[in-house]
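Sample intake sheet
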Amino acid sequence: MALAGSVAPAGARAMPVAEGALDPGLRDGEAPDAAGIQSEALRVAAASAESGAPAASAESPASAGSAALPDTRSATAAAPLAAGQKPGGTSPSAVPAHRATCRPEPAAPPHLRPKAAKKVLIFVIDDAGNNSRQLEPFLKLPFPLTIAVLPGLPYSLADAHAVKAASKELILHQPMEAVGGQDPGPGALRLGMDPATVAQVIDANLRTVPGAVGMNNHMGSAVTADPQLMDAVAAVAKERGIYYLNSLTISGTATALAARREGIRYWERSVFLDNTPDRVSIFRAVDDGKKRATKGGSAIMIGHVWSAELAQALMELYPQLVEEGFSLSTISRFMIQEAEEDDESPRN
């Protein structure tokens, strides 16, 4: 998984996620059947060397992960005779000299013990910025939440401030041109833009959504499939120190490769919560996300502020999710958690 910070440091693991698994031909506004989901890299606990053995350093000729054998020469000389044993002889009950001098192996430190499997749910709410009335129910939810605010709208700035005041995570919901010709709204990225123009547009949008720590696409089925445009988007994200969340409005995007080339933190949506915005469909979508998180460690579920029943449905589900052992988080918090766990992991 991703490490803390928006830009991957040298040598950091890239997000091991596959590009979208939606059916070809899906466009913005259509209900996809499935989506790409992050997969979490397996952690392998390092084998501990026998107590008293000199550790192999990076400069040691010993291979990585191997432990040097203890020197038994002095131990042999100093080992006491076992009962009934004569000098120079052996006894069936005698303990080998190099074992007799070893202290009991200490208990493993806490961070080397097996960790409980993570089941993390991340809820992202898109399309804020049109009016504050739609946003208010989500800001009152008593758990971590990510709000994606559209730029250049009458309430973009006010909603951004409200999100920060409510201690929720704020990201830019970057409009992008769609294949179907729908209007993505002000501040949109469009086909044919050069990298300098892309940077200017995103920078201007970030000024209307101050404090954003990430960015995801609004519409964008045309732009996200363009490698040059997505390279330019990823370059801006790297420069600004923000992560990118692929909303996966269409399959076959160029986003993951662009993120890998630029070395930025990259994520993908797992589930849309409100393609059909009734309560039964929302509950079914959350169940889908739970299954994905149980299997893969985490799931990112995207809904919308205009979904009339979504906030109340999430409030009702919250106690059940906690009781079932799910942890609710944001992408930034999850990155910090992953970084802390990586720092605690043993190094060969």
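Comment: The beta strands are 120-128, 146-149, 169-176, 214-219, 243-246, 266-268, 271-272, 298-304, 327-329. The first helix runs from residue 73 to 78.
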